[in-house]
Structure formats: C-alpha cells, structure tokens
Write a structure and sequence with these properties.
Layout lengths: L1 E6 L7 H15 L3 E6 H4 L7 H7 L7 H12 L2 E7 L7 H10 L6 E3 L5 E3 L5 E8 L3 H6 L2 H17 L2 E9 L7 H13 L6
Parallel strand pairs: 1-2, 1-3, 3-6, 6-7
Antiparallel strand pairs: 4-5
Length: about 200
C-alpha cells in the first residue's frame, strides 16, 4: 500500500521534517511505500485564485498544480499531514493546499437536490501536529475539540475520508524531541496495520 505524506514547514532541518521522515521510515519498515510532498520546497502556491474559483463552479478543469496533487492523492491509500501548529491551526501553506486540492467535483459533490456526495471514502487520514504549548494549556483552551471540529469533521468527514490518527506532539512531552521521532516511526509502522 502507498501513503502520501504532506509536510508544511519552510525549514527542511525542522523538527516537523524530522517527524515526517521518521513517519515515512516507519511506513517503509512495515513493507509499504510513501511519497513525501514538501509543500514549501516544491513551491506550492496556497492562494485560492480565479482558476480555483472556476473549478469550484465546475466551469474549468483543475489548474496543473492542483491536477498534480489530485494524481498524488489518487495513488495513495493513506494521507498523512505533518505540520507545526501556527496560531492554533494549520500553517497557511497547508490550509491553502487543502483549499485548492480538496475541490468540488473531486473530493465532494452535491446533486441538484443539494445532497452531499462524499468522494474520498477510500482514503484514510493521519494527522501529526507539533507545537510548543503544553497538554494542559491545549486542554484548558479546548484545542483538542476545536481540532476535531475544524479538521477531522470540517474537512475530512465532509469528503468522506476517515481520520484514523490525530496525534499532538508537544515540546513539553517527556523525552522531547527524541520521543516525538520514536512516536512518528511507530505511527508509520501502524498506518497499514489491520484494524479491529
């Protein structure tokens, strides 16, 4: 099986990139394959533009960069997003990737009666976020619930994709940063493990 691992951090020497690399190593150690989409180094443009709007209204084909991302996702059995928490959310680069790639007619569709058709039901999703606040601060401010509402439900459930992993790795965790790399490797090994 094959995973697409999307990384959104401008520094290739960042902890985010190291976590993604260990996650990929775990997938490969379990006998599967992975492709890493490094949005910053690839120069992905996160700005939703007129061509994206035309696609949304189903008046045009996907722009070439969006079509490339669709093809990557169509090859994948699993999608992993590895990202730092910026202002209690995704980095703009990753949010823009979702805005532009999870398109009307491809990720979801509505019929003339307004009924939603979720088109990514085959895709499993793994979310790995890293941040600086401690668990207690995240819990006190409702971050876990907000993350599930915004990301798990608001994005992936809307398209029918199942979020199987939602991991939050924080600088205050015991064994930081090595523990995060070990966790990422273990998560990668379990991506395609049989589920009960």
């Amino acid at each position: 099986m094959h995973a697409l691992v999307v990384v959104a951090h401008p520094n290739p020497a960042s902890l985010t990139h190291a976590i993604a690399a260990h996650f990929v190593a775990g997938i490969e150690a379990s006998g599967h394959t992975a492709e890493t989409a490094d949005l910053a180094s690839e120069g992905f443009d996160p700005r939703f533009n007129q061509a994206d709007l035309a696609l949304f209204h189903q008046q045009a084909s996907p722009p070439s960069d969006v079509a490339t991302e669709h093809a990557r996702l169509e090859r994948a059995d699993a999608l992993a997003l590895v990202y730092p928490i910026y202002w209690w959310s995704f980095p703009a680069l990753l949010k823009g990737w979702i805005d532009r790639v999870f398109t009307n007619g491809w990720a979801y569709d509505q019929d003339d009666g307004g009924k939603l058709h979720k088109k990514l039901q085959r895709l499993q999703v793994h979310l790995i976020a890293n941040g600086g606040a401690d668990q207690r601060t995240m819990a006190r401010h409702g971050y876990f619930g907000a993350m599930k509402t915004q990301i798990d439900h608001g994005i992936f459930d809307y398209c029918g994709a199942r979020v199987l992993t939602s991991e939050l790795l924080l600088a205050s965790d015991a064994g930081f940063p090595q523990a995060h790399l070990d966790t990422a490797h273990a998560l990668g090994q379990r991506v395609f493990a049989p589920r009960p």
